[in-house]
Amino acid sequence: MKYFFLSDGWIVGRVWGLDGLWQFAAWRRAPQIERMNICLVEKNEILWLYSVENAVLTVEVKPTQPANQNIGQVIIKRLITAEQVLERLGNAETSCAMQNSQAVLV
Fold it and tell me: Distances from the Cα of 13 to the Cαs of 16, 23, 31, 52, 79, in angstroms?
């Protein structure tokens, strides 16, 4: 598994795998991308942890409300390992977890 952190209010767009842009027809399934119940807070911004399958190389992310953002999309090319996730959580200002559909500081 690989991981990345994504700011609250952003969603996953296109996904690239080993053969280029993820082809639903060729793979016959969507890529496995899951938002975990773990987040961290940096500069008053909630960042959620996502896991992705190893076949995913690059992920496009975009804000849910592009009219209110200066950035239309971002391409994440550096997915991180579990060890890097632990290091990042250990160095975070604050970490949080999902409880009853809300982020709760830990």
Answer: 10, 13, 11, 13, 15
Closest by CA position to 75, among listed 13, 9, 2: 13
Instruction: Kindly compute the dihedral angle of the four CA atoms of residues 97, 98, 100, 106, in this order, to the nearest 10 degrees.
Output: 10
pTM value is 0.86
Q: Say if CB 50 and CB 85 are below 8 A apart.
A: no
pLDDT tens column, 11-47: 999 999 988 999 888 889 999 999 999 999 888 889 9
Kindly state the tokens that stand for 97.
């977890």
Burial of 92 (0-12, 13-18, 19+ CB in 10 A): middle
Cα(96)–Cα(106) distance, integer angstroms:
5
> Where are the chain's structural domains?
2-105
Q: In this structure, are residues 73 and 36 in contact, taking their beta carbons and an 8 Å threshold?
A: no
Helix, strand, or coil here: 37? strand
